[in-house]
Structure formats: structure tokens, C-alpha cells
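# nightly structure sweep
# worker-07 picked up a monomer target from the shared queue
# config: single-sequence mode, recycle default, output format = C-alpha cells
# input follows
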Amino acid sequence: MTDERSKPILLQGNEAIAEGALAAGMRFFGGYPISPSSEIAETLARRLPQVGGTFIQMEDEIASISSVIGASIAGVKAMTATSGPGFSLMQEGIGFAVMAETPCVIVNVQRMGPSSGYATAPAQGDVMQARYGTHGPHSIIALSPSSVKECFDVTIQAFNLSERYRTPVVILADAVVGHLREVVTLPQPEEIEVVNRRRPIGSPGSVNPFEPDLDGVPAVPDFGTGYHYHITGLFHDETGFPSTSPVKLQETTERLVSKVEDHREEITSVEYLFMEDAEIAVISYGCVGRSARAAVKMARARGIKAGLVRLITLWPFPEHVIEAVAERTPRLLVAEMNLGDVAGEVRRVTRNGVEIAQMNRHDGALITPGQLLHGIEGVMEHA
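# output follows
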């Protein structure tokens, strides 16, 4: 693949996720095949040995997330990929990674659910699961790509954020984007910004592995390099050993949340289109963002001042973005392939007086540009 980066190539979204992970320095993948994400595992089974990495097909998704956590603790950038049913099985492991502050990336190429649902039909039904799927107070970072090139870029971004904030990061792709093929030109390695986890400065024995820096994020000592420390899913103090101190429990809970939430603006990525004078803003993400972009252009051609706000970062929810849009745009149309997950968040953070409409599908078919244009026209007719 390296030799191909100087020229345009035809690439699938799932393949681009795999290549983005490699470009970010990922060298361990543990996973179990499941539609519509299986091409990620297939690609990495071939590519990881070529770069000195390790691919293991695990016996199930619980083992997959566990292997990824173990690899990361040993100092290797690690990733797994799955879809809704497997993502459900991974929730306990994701919660452990949050508590143990273990950097890793989990790709969920979403399909219709609940349960086995419809294995190859597109959906965006796991948005709330990504945020609240594991129990207890915590924060999470989740990103949603909308194109093949963005699959590559967002995967690098996910690893960079995971390493920077010492936390698991979820990529919420969907079946349309994962299986889409587009002609892309990938950047050269020297053009890619890669963030690596901060290592402790002190010698083994003198470092508390969960002692936060001023930004709330501890340095990460790697097992096998002389650092031996206790890792547990229990509440613990800065040494890693369990603690029942109410003060320590409160401090730990607040820090696990604040180390992400306090950096919300640094984490947030959003695409805007025609928002300078928009009288209606379409808010969307993932595959629906592609339809929304086309619909907004069609609306403009008809004299309707429509704009697009496409969310790339879904969690932490970009409240400041939505608040700013609502301050200058009187009408919002939230389009998504579920029954209103992000629409509920938009309603939560917007002031009274803003008209919020929804367009939702959960029938295995993509929201089309024509449907969105009709929705835009309907909102404006009643303005």
C-alpha cells in the first residue's frame, strides 16, 4: 500500500479504516468476523504481518476486546472491529478500558438491530450505546466518518485521541460507508500527524501509574519495560491498587469524565456548508451526511437558504457547536437512520424558540437527497 500512496486508488471504506490504523501505528488487531465490518479484519490479516504487526482472530468479541486491552497495556497500539451484536458483547471490556485508562480503538460498522437484526442493512442505531453502553459515570469519544477518505483520516484521529487522552475511542461507521468504494489518494507517511502516548519520566518503582498530569491524563508505563504495576477494574488510587476511600472514589470518577469533557473543543470535528446565511440547518452524520450535502445544494438551487452541519465527533456531544448554530439559525432539521438519538441531544442543548424537525429512517434504506430536500421544503413552507 505504501507504494500506492502517490496515485489515486479505488478503496473501500472498511479497507481505508484498516489502512488508517496502520498509518497511525496500530500493530495489533484482535477481532471476530461479523458483517458489515469483516473486510477490516480480512485486510489486516494480510497487511499486519507485512509491517511486523500481529493479527489474531479471537473466539468471540469478548475475547477480542480483552486481547486488545492486553496488547495496549504492553505498549502496542491496538484495535478491534465489529458490528452491533459484537459491540454489545464488548461493553464490559470497554468499561474496563475506561477504568484502567487503556488506549485502544473500537470500530463499530453499524447494522440494523436490535439483536441480529439485518446483517448488511445500514443503520445508525448504536449512537446511544456508544455513549451509555457500559455502566457507571464515564465519558467516551466517538467519531463518525462519511466518506472513504474520511474513514482513513478519522481512524488516525481516533488513535491520536486515544493515545492523547488515555481512553478507548469508538469509530461509529455504518454499512453504507464501510462498503462504499471511492477513488482516493492517501497521504504520504511524513504528511500524517501521529500522536503517541506519553510515557513516564521516572524510573520503575518511582512512578505512580495513575498519577494524573496537569491535564488530568496520566503517563502510560508499558508492561515489559521494567514497569510493574497493579491494573484493576475496581476503583483505585494513583498506585493502581483498589481503594474504598470516598475521597479517592470521587476524585477518580470526576477525573475520568473531566479529562475528556474539559477538552471537548479540542476533540470536536464538524463540517459546515453554506452556514453563513442559512435559514435552516440540516444536522447529520455518517452516511446521511452525504445525502444532506447533496440536499442542501439542491435546496440552494431552488432559492432556499439551507446549510449543513455534519457532525464527525458524536461524543462528547458538541454542545457548543449546536448552541452556536441555534443562536443564528431559527430552524434545524436533524436527519439520522434511527428514531432520533442525536435529535434528542439537539433538543437538550438548544434554547426555546428554535424550531427542531426530524427525519428518521430505520427500515434498512438510506435517507436520500430527494427525501431530505422534501423535508427542507416542508419545514420552510411552515416557517
